Amino acid sequence: MAQSKHLGGRRIEPQRIVGGMTVTELVDGTFQAYNAARLREACQLLTRKMLDEDVTVGLTMTGALTPAGLGMSALIPLIEAGFVDWIISTGANLYHDAHFGIGLELKQGNPHTSDIILREEEVVRIYDIFFDYSVLLDTDAFFRQVITAPEFQRPMSTAEFHYLCGKYVAAREEELGQGRKSLLAAAYEYGVPIYTSSPGDSSIGMNVAAKALQGNRLVFDVNADVNETAAIVLDAKRREGKSAIWILGGGSPKNFALQTEPQIQEVMGIDERGHDYFLQVTDARPDTGGLSGATPAEAVSWGKVDPDRLPDAVVCYLDSTVALPIIAAYALDNHAPRTPKRLYHRRDEMMQRIIDEYEASERNEAAQEAARHNSDTTLARDR
User: Fold this and answer.
1) Gyration radius of the chain over CA positions
2) Per CATH, which fold does 31-376 belong to?
3) Which residues are catalytic?
4) In this structure, are residues 41 and 314 in contact, taking their beta carbons and an 8 Å threshold?
5) What is the pTM of this model?
6) Helix (H, G, I), strand (E, B) or coil at 161
7) 23-48, pLDDT tens digit by residue?
8) Separation in Å, CA 179 to CA 22, 142, 160, 249
9) CB neighbourhood size of 42 (10 A)
10) In the chain, N or C: fewer CB atoms in 10 Å?
């Protein structure tokens, strides 16, 4: 009998693990099956395809990643290497990121410590991350002071808000002489727009809401966020490039990134096919409803992912705090830095492109009305 086509995979014959192995040798040589193999595929998808110069990489973040130091250890190096072009994050990740930027301390702790005792001693716990209650108060005070500046007294997208905040965090880092510790500051320096899909759902949003009661005029423009993120994806495609989405966790940031394609296709009626590359690290499951946006195959039915690109989709069911450092180290070890796209500074240009295509679309009610008017005028003239 002829050998089955399903036996064409690589032979499982890993390298022996020895001292001094590089991350590349470990991943390529020993991650052979199960989610270790999916992690290997994730590393290779990112470095061999997603980091091509013509690919625009959007990263989404949920879970308490920045309090664990992953902003400093992994995300800032990725931004500095030009490997991340735009971000959608929970507000909490950005709030806790600011602690480091303004010189506050978070400590390793024991997750089994009594929370009653911790409360009595004014210690706040994020699983095994401990910090003094004053860290929250000092960070709140920082944001409240920042948003009283004249430049914040108007509606703005969350990308503009985070860019302006990043400027102030970067200035504080410089004053402290501590080097780059804040993701917000790094994104400001490299022009990486950061969006928050639910800006009221964090301590940053809480402070903005409190200041509004005192007459502060800052308002988050969620419509701008929806349109700007869609414009980023459309621009990537129209410049004869590709769009890649790298998802850490799931939740609202994941859906907000993936809905850019339905916004373009379904709502605006613009011809498009979906994201080209899909990489997700998650510990959720689709059958319980906890895997927001579900699998890349399911996302095809919504137009979120190009069906022809499904082989370029990897889902790794693993804790992001384990996967992210490995993927980042592998990418930095195997791919030369890219020229930063600095998309924040191109927002107006990208918005004009999507506005022009929407105005020309048959889905545009104004265009439909103009077409009907022209048709009626022509009929009247013919009579």
Assistant:
1) 23
2) Deoxyhypusine Synthase (3.40.910)
3) 304
4) yes
5) 0.91
6) helix
7) 999 999 999 999 999 999 999 999 99
8) 27, 19, 23, 28
9) 26
10) N
